[in-house]
Amino acid sequence: MTKEKLWTKDFISITVISFFIFLAFYVLLTALPLYLVGNLHAGADKVGLVVTLFLGAAIVIRPFAGKWVSKGSQKKILVYSAIAFLVGTLLYPFATNIWALFILRIFHGITFGIITTVKGTICAELIPASRRGEGLSYFSLAMCLAMVFGPYIGLNLANIDAYNTAFVICMVISVVNIGFAFFLKVPENKKQASKQKNQKFSWNDLVDKKAAPFALATFILACAYSGISAFLSLYAKDLGLVEAASYFFIVYAVFILIFRPFTGRWSDQYGSKIIIYPCLVLFAIGMFMLNQTHTGALMVIAGAIIGIGYGSITPIFQTLTISAVEPHRVGIANSLFFNSMDAGMAIGAYGLGMIATGAGYRSVFLAGGILVIIAGLLYFVQTKNKQPIQAKNKATAKAQEQA
To answer: How many CB atoms lie within 10 A of CB 243?
Structure first.
């Protein structure tokens, strides 16, 4: 049997768009904290708020963006949101005070929420149904690569006060994105659009009670990781380890790429608990190592450990969240998972920023390690004496075959 073609021009284009969107996201995520403190003389609480406003705006707009994508032209929404994203990057050099930057981050977060929603929908439609798992794995790899290069570029440019160069890089890749979006051929699903056109918005479209417990654990873990994304650069600057911090993100992403395929496969074969508990332990150890670090080597080793721990956990929790609901509500569960991650990053950055203001940057990683332990206890309570979801799914499939 011949495999359906996956690597089409359009699939490559939407994957490149995803890479550039997240590249700009990570460049700004790591450079702006240093820009805020060094150029705008802001406190740690304001640094956390810059992350919170951006992701909060994305979270709020995403459900509405999903409705727009289902009703209107996906191609037009992609092009318009890519243009709006470019407009956001063009305005950073002019955000010369804290409040202007806050307003800009809200606007940019809205454009980010829309473009990430539409690109994910388009990607799912471009991938042949028979190769969806494989295709989505490659598509998500674009974000992992952006996670390697974005922080490295942002931190190294911030280290030499080249913030305008960082902004220009984001502008250039945003222009390239518009070109890819303009020439992309999008298969419009008219039948689905007309079917959903008259449906009213409901909170039931956002939350499924069966998936909520796993989404809550995901939220807590994202809160813990937000301390790294928002404050590691400032912490490293205080310690004189900015170069080591840039390598932290590279090592972190490399270990994700190495271990994620294996941990996902082992989770399918042996059950999620076999992977989740060791990875939670590793994640907590990595956070406590950051709390105690005084050398670049220890910081980089912590990056490897957290890459294995947190990097392996996130796709497994996504699987658990999706597997907890009926097949026709998988989309809702998937949306809930990503909103939980974004909400955790947003609220965590602000809350940990307040902790950093009162107790210093080291306390951010101590608090993060405690949050990981809380997430582990929550997962234990959720799954105690319950049949593993993987086993439940296998039993259901076997029963259907026998029927």
So the answer is: 14
Structural domain total, the chain: 2
| Residue 292 confidence (pLDDT) | 93
Which pLDDT score is estimated for 137? 60
CB neighbours of residue 384 within 10 Å: 7
158, 187, 216 - which closes a domain:
187
Is 393 within a domain?
yes
The tokens for 88 are: 């956001």
Q: Say which residues have a Cβ less than 8 Å from residue 73's Cβ, sequence separation at least 6.
A: 186, 188
The H-assigned helical ranges of 293-329 are 296-323
What pLDDT is stored for residue 308 in this prediction?
92
Structural domain that includes position 159: 10-187
CB–CB of 388/307 below 8 Å? no
CATH number at residue 75: 1.20.1250.20
Are 225 and 140 contained in the same domain?
no
User: Residue 198 falls within a domain, yes or no?
Assistant: no
Coil, strand or helix at 295: coil
* 80-111 residue pLDDT tens: 999 999 999 999 999 888 899 999 999 999 99
